[in-house]
Amino acid sequence: MAPSSSSLIVFAFIALACALCVQSTSGNIACEDLKEDSCAYAVSSSGKRCVLEKHVRRSGEEKYTCRASDIEAEKLKDWIETDKCIEACGVDRHALGISSDSLLEPQFTHKLCSSACYRSCPNIVDLYFNLAAGEGVYLPKLCEAQRGHGRREMAEIKSSGMVAPGPESDGGKPVSFYIVAPAPPPY
Hints:
The protein has helices spanning 5-25, 36-39, 83-89, 106-112, 115-118, 122-134, 139-147, 151-159; strands at residues 48-56, 62-72. By secondary structure, it is an alpha+beta fold.
């Protein structure tokens, strides 16, 4: 039996509506439009990382807003982190700001360095790779030390054994710099 013209019109309308829905949800992420439960670890269409902020009104009421930070994600745009990665990496979707201090917590580094996170969640790994680099720590070395459960290695990281020194000048000799490599790609 051949389809009637009215059923073809209905099918075309449904197909067009589905196409518009898919187009509007893929891409064009603005941090300011995200809700509290999807803000942290998201990346906007412009490549800026989203950050959750808490504002307390005079009445004492707390209001959460999402905004674009000044930090750009490398090679990543239009990204809302999955619940699977949030759990695998041990991060909190309701985190207010992100600190490198968490890298000193063994429970956190254990999850971050696990293969479920490190190999499957490039957005979170890239973010913490850059946070670690800002502290002079090379994340793959930190993960290697964490996997080995070596107290000596962790102590070196915490004490500055793995911190890259700043530039030094030696009587007119060229200044030497340490270059931080981008996060290694997941396997």
